Structures are given as structure tokens and as C-alpha cells.
Amino acid sequence: MKNIFLVAFAAILLSACATPSLVPSDLASRVQFTDENVYVKNIQDTQTDDGIIRITVFGGLASRYAKVVRYRLRWYDSSHTPIDTALSNWRELNVDGSAPFEFTAVAPGKRAVSYVIEFETR
């Protein structure tokens, strides 16, 4: 009986220590991480007056320590061909420990119909 109790207790303890999802499942195809300290809560897709995609990303840092969060957007056309542009270069945000962040990005033109955001920290 003690063994059953210990196994059940260990299962509960391990499930409490599980890593939370870094991004909501509906956004998972648009976000890539190289660091588990960064998470994304939401992405708002809108359009400029010219019909160009504009996104606002709401995320945060799970680390207790300040970090430089680097991100870049890879833009794609309707045939999912990458659009090579200076807007795909890495950008940096200085984020305090456990703090949220937000940034806005605009597509390089009307040809861009989808994107993937990549995150890493320093």
C-alpha cells in the first residue's frame, strides 16, 4: 500500500514540475524557440491601410534574470517561398527578469502572406 501511495505522490510531484507551454497551440506553427526562457502569450494580426500585414507580439521572459531577447521574422509569399529582406535580420530587446515584452513588426510588402518568428536569448 505504501508503494502505491509513493508512486501516486511521485506522479503528482512530477506533473507539477512539468514545463509550461511556451506558446498557445494555435500559434505554435508561427513561433520557434531556441530558449525555454521566452514565451509568447498572443500575436495580433492586423493590416496597414495599404493592406500589408502588421503583427504585434505579446510575450515574456520566464527567467528571473534580465536577458537580451533576440527575435527575427521570416516572411513568406503565397507559395511559401522565403522573402529575403533586411526585415528578417535579428533584432534585440532588453527584458528584465520575469518581465513581459511587446513588439510590432510590419511585413516587407503585400507579397508577404505568412511568417515565422524565431526567438533566442543572450
Cα(first) to Cα(last) distance is: 49 Å
Overall form: elongated
Main beta sheet: strand number and arrangement? 5 strands, mixed
Percent range of helical residues: 10-25%
Q: Regions with pLDDT < 50 over 5+ consecutive residues?
A: 3-20
Category from helices, strands and their pairing: mainly beta
Number of helices: 1
Question: Which CATH architecture is right?
Answer: Sandwich
Name of the CATH class: Mainly Beta
**DSSP strand (E) fraction?**
35-45%
Q: From N to C, what is the helix and strand string?
A: HEEEEEEEE
Number of domains: 1
Number of strands: 8
CATH topology: Immunoglobulin-like
Compute the gyration radius: what is it? 19 Å
Give the rounded overall mean pLDDT. 83
Can you lay out the helices and strands and say which pair or pack?
Layout: H1 2-16, E1 31-33, E2 38-47, E3 53-61, E4 67-76, E5 82-83, E6 91-95, E7 100-106, E8 114-121
Parallel strand pairs: 1-8
Antiparallel strand pairs: 2-3, 3-7, 4-5, 4-6, 4-8
Features:
single chain, 122 residues, mainly beta, Immunoglobulin-like, 5-stranded mixed β-sheet, 3-stranded antiparallel β-sheet, 1 helix, 8 strands, disordered N terminus
Structure description:
The protein is mainly beta. 12% of the residues lie in helices and 44% in strands. The protein has one helix spanning 2-16; strands spanning 31-33, 38-47, 53-61, 67-76, 82-83, 91-95, 100-106, 114-121. Strands 1, 4, 5, 6 and 8 form a five-stranded mixed sheet that branches. A three-stranded antiparallel sheet has the order 2-3-7, with no helix packed on it. The longest helix has 15 residues, at 2-16. It is elongated, with a radius of gyration of 19 Å.
